Amino acid sequence: IQQTRFFDRDGKPLKVYTLRAFKVQDGRPVATESEMSTVASGHKTVITLQDIDTKTPQSPGDFTPDALPRG
């Protein structure tokens, strides 16, 4: 398990990102389960990835706000 801790401008704990599990797929480490928790409220969001495609090429444009789907 690896963690990254985030602090506010006053140095108080804000959020904690925890990498819970990963696997190596096609020679690349891939996070398969991660968690982001808010220190003050204790709220947690868990992301679990099961079917990961590492072979489809992606362009830098895939990672812009305009590329996000709108509902």
Overall average pLDDT: 92
Alpha carbon gap, first and last residue: 35 Å
Strand order of the largest sheet: 1-2-3-4
Helix content: under 10%
Structural class: mainly beta
Low-confidence runs = none
Proportion of beta-strand residues:
over 45%
What does it look like?
A hairpin with a 2-residue loop joins strand 2 and strand 3. The protein has no helices and four strands. It is an all-beta fold and 71 residues long. It has a four-stranded antiparallel beta sheet with strand order 1-2-3-4, with no helix packed on it.
List the keywords:
71 residues, mainly beta, four-stranded antiparallel sheet, extended
Topology, element by element:
Elements: E1 2-7, E2 13-25, E3 28-38, E4 44-48
Antiparallel strand pairs: 1-2, 2-3, 3-4
What's this entry about, in short?
The protein is mainly beta and 71 residues long. It is 0% helix and 49% strand. It has strands at 2-7, 13-25, 28-38, 44-48.
